[in-house]
Model the fold of this input.
Amino acid sequence: MALSMSADHGPAGEGATDALIGCLRNAHEASRRAARTALRHEELAATGTAVVPALHERMATLHRQVEQRHLVAVRLYSRLLAAQHWPHTDAAPACPGWSALMYATAQAAGSAGAVIALFDARRDEILALASDAVAERAHAMERRVGEGPSVDAVRTGRQVAVSGTEISRRWPGYGPGAAVLLVGSVVAVPVLAASACVGTLTLLNPAPAHEPAGLLGEALVRTMLSDAGPGAGPAVPGGDHRGAIYPAVGRISVRYGCSPDDALALVRARAFAGDIDLHAAADQVLNETR
Done:
């Protein structure tokens, strides 16, 4: 379900509040259903009469994980409801749409900023949502130079945690720009579905967290964002469906007779040289008449 936020007064009116309350109730109910199912499997596994007790143990574990994921969603929805009363300062800006959710996520994770990114089966990014302008710019750098915490997390399927000077050593293209943005540490966790990485949650300057990063990423990708229909809600900061990138890669590939990977590298080089987003560089390619 898409969440609509006004520019000045948090969630837009009673309709948005009712929608949030509905999401909160649904998440509560989903967590209770998962808990009941887990308990039933736990009891079956403990009786000693089950034909395959290991199967019931496995099912109980899976449903406990689902329960925890929905409970994290409950706490995030609760933060969004509380956001209606946040003072709109630099520390707690009036965020439209999904950026309010990401701001709440950053708070829950004890971090200065947060970005959730979704990927298709080819590990190409199809959507990114950022908590604030700094997080958005940091993630845009990853897209532009093709390296960084979320890139490594989706490539390896493992958590990435880097801080200090190691950021620039590990990612020479991303690190210096991150330093300019005062990003001194990053954590990126993959979100897996059917053994494939479908998303990543990246945290900037994380502190000791109230919510584990892995559970937050699971709740966002597999519970909350999955409820958003195509085109639902307002324009999202950091959101980029990258509609121009593939046509631009195709045009360069045909023009210069190079591979798609080399063509994408050329688009990235243009973005880096012009200090612009990868999508903007792709638009430039498509708008060229020569």
Observations:
- Residues 1-12, 88-96, 228-242 have pLDDT under 50 and may be disordered.
- Strands lie at 113-119, 125-130, 160-163, 185-193, 196-204.
- The chain has three domains: 13-85, 98-227, 245-287.
- The longest helix spans residues 13-47.
